[in-house]
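Usage example:
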Amino acid sequence: MAKVRISQTNAQVDLESTAPPRRITQLMVEVDVSSVPMPRRITQLLIEVDLEQPTGRVQGPTVAQI
Amino acid sequence: MARLFTTGFEEGDAYVFTGFGGAAPTNYSIITTNVRTGLRAISIGSNCFPNITFTATSEVYLRFGFRFGGSASDTTILQLQDGSNIQILLSYICDSGLLRAWRGNKVTKLAEVFVPWAMRWYCIEVHLLVDNSSGVLQVKVNGELVLDYSGDTQQSANSTVDTVVWFGSANGQYFDDIAINDTSGSRNNSWIGRGGVYGLVPNGVGNYSEFTPSAGNNYECVDEVPPDGDTSYVESDTVGHKDSYALANLSLTSASIAALVWHVWAKQDVSDGRNVARLLRISGTDYQGADKALTTSYQRLMETIESNPHTSADWTLDDINGLELGFVSR
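Running the assembly step on the lines above writes:
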């Protein structure tokens, strides 16, 4: 009888992470505006980063323009 | 069946495709850097058009990771076809950032949307209902619906598709995490989502080691990616012999699992009508698939298992991490 020969086996799993998106809760930015005596201060800027599931790579633009 | 096709190219070759067309059908490469998920993806060059065929259906959902290679001209990404007849074509122009949907071979432009060009991965999902008047073509990019066309989506005489043809470009076009659903069944019958495909290879001895290894432990003969053919293998001339292997655990801690796909690269040494069957061993119980015919040349055989046969429920991470993968000589 002929032999059955297997050179490779593997499984592939199609999955989607259900972990919540990571959150940067405090990002303080000081803006030095020359015409204003005191620098303005943004004390809390909440940014939710939408991670490309399931790899954890940052999904959106990596450079933000304020 | 609801899930028609799945691949992340984690097996290390491109033989998951049904065939390759074009003047340069081997102008592709499996890449291992800058992939979307898992460890591998595919880069397709110019004049190479791999295809996937499936049972004809009027409604289909498609998901793929896509990285634009960059081209100033309108470059085809894929065609959804009825046989050799193009029903729907997607194209992209890097210079203008226009993602376009066409009926036929760019016969009628149905819709277009601006998607900024960048050398990063996009997750593109397509929903197509083929019909002369009440058809639907929707496209999501990274989970957001960006194209929503209703009307005539049927270019051929039939209101079905059975083939996806993928296109490369001179600058390369990169694909990963391809999945196709139809609307049948209770699972995988709609949008696929932004997930990805991970590969698991044998990394330890399992419950069965009835095949004869070419050298060393059985699992060490079938864990190469890509497969090394007759360099290392296990073999058996006895019907009913089983091999099963432990797998590495997935690294994620929380995930929904749409499907598991079993792969072998297998042959019979002489023509004798031999077969191989899928084996999953879960919680001490064997779950065997249907016989798959072998030829005297290596071929890639796959089987999609959409739910855990032990629980009849959706797969869980614990299920995947606990199972043994293998095969049965038939």
